[in-house]
Design a protein that fits this description.
About 40% of the residues lie in helices and about 20% in strands. It has about 350 residues and is of the alpha/beta class. It folds into 2 domains: about 150 residues, Rossmann fold (3-Layer(aba) Sandwich); about 130 residues, 3-Layer(aba) Sandwich (Rossmann fold), CATH 3.40.50. A hairpin with a 2-residue loop joins strand 1 and strand 2. The longest helix has 27 residues. It comes from Corynebacterium suranareeae. One of its GO terms (biological process) is iron coordination entity transport.
């Protein structure tokens, strides 16, 4: 619902801008000048300052011209590209038909519609990257994640022989910062600011609409698939930052458990916990489980240390949609909707 509303706002804003320009043209009497202004207003807000140098998580990247054919090797970063109307022609994908997470192509569900509208082609499975496929698409920019399950950072040198490569590490970054960098790299700065402002406005609405339980702390976490444990979200996690922006008191993870990073090596946003350590590693009065697919909810219900926890007995367990597993504009808006529904 948030996605539809947002898309409507974009169209309405452009339509309103067109009406305003038309009215000014009728009143000014200078038809030629105002026709030029109308064309400018109706055109894309793409920046024309090229070449430009971008600070990335792999050093500086200089782009000579605005990208027109972008290949995303990161399923996670594709959503942020689509949100700013960047010209994505192909994206990597993950396991298909995972309810609450991916569609029939393996794209994340929150941006499926946007990908269809943009005619995004499948690039490769995250499990089986194919450099030849990227080369055949003749991109002028390739986007790579430095970390995470969809990272192809080890292929950067090969990919650079095809096109300039933009490397970003989303693991400890806000989706807004990622979106701003992508906006700068694609000449879509105005679109990036627009979606960030939409999110900020919605966050303020949610803050006004909900009641945060007094004197209650929160532990946010993710349930791993296959019964392998949970990932406690640190203060560096983008999900945690949203909760803190809203006003939740997110508690700390005990220091003696922070050494267990088997599923989060070199990542500042998560600490992996075996189920037997879940209660001690998640000491908050309230548990907020992000990325909760139906399978994750079933795992919770069938794992006694979780289902029999005091938090669950007190009714203080809240599940965020599966799509919130990885945050971009679309899933961040979904997370706000879910928080409002849980705490209003």
């Amino acid at each position: 619902m948030a996605i539809v509303r947002s898309r409507f706002n974009k169209v309405f804003s452009l339509f309103s801008a067109g009406i305003l320009v038309f009215g000014l043209a009728a009143c000014s009497g200078n038809a030629a000048e105002n026709e030029s202004e109308a064309e400018t207003a109706a055109s894309s807000s793409d920046s024309t300052e090229w070449p430009r140098t971008i600070d990335t998580d792999d050093g500086e990247l200089t782009l000579d011209a605005q990208p027109q054919r972008i290949v995303s090797t990161s399923t996670t970063l594709t959503g942020s590209l689509l949100a700013i109307d960047a010209p994505v022609i192909a994206s990597a994908y993950t396991g298909a038909n995972n309810p609450g997470l991916t569609d029939q192509y393996g794209y994340f569900s929150q941006w499926t519609q946007a990908a269809e509208e943009a005619d995004v082609e499948p690039l490769w499975s995250n499990a089986e990257p194919q450099i030849e496929r990227a080369a055949a698409l003749e991109p002028d920019l390739i986007v790579v994640s430095k970390n995470g399950g969809d990272s192809r950072f080890e292929m950067v040198d090969q990919l650079k022989t095809i096109a300039p490569v933009l490397v970003l590490d989303y693991s400890g970054a806000d989706w807004q910062d990622i979106t701003k960098t992508l906006g700068e790299a694609t000449g879509k700065e105005a679109e990036a600011e627009e979606v960030i402002q939409e999110f900020d406005n919605r966050l303020e609405e949610v803050k006004e609409a909900i009641t945060i339980p007094a004197d209650k702390t929160v532990s946010p976490f993710i349930i791993f698939g296959g019964g392998s444990g949970v990932a406690a979200l640190t203060h560096e996690a983008p999900h945690t930052r949203i909760l803190e922006q809203i006003g939740f008191d997110v508690t700390d993870i005990p220091e003696d458990l922070k050494g267990d990073t088997s599923m989060g090596a070199n990542r500042p946003d998560i600490v992996s916990l075996a189920f037997e350590n879940a209660t001690r590693g998640l000491p908050g009065d309230i548990w907020i489980i992000v990325g909760a697919t139906p399978d994750n909810v079933e795992t919770f219900e069938n794992t006694p240390i979780l289902s029999e926890s005091q938090q669950n007995k007190d009714g203080n367990v809240h599940f965020m949609p599966g799509e919130t597993f990885r945050l971009d504009y679309y899933s961040a808006m979904m997370m706000l909707d879910s928080i409002e529904e849980s705490f209003a």
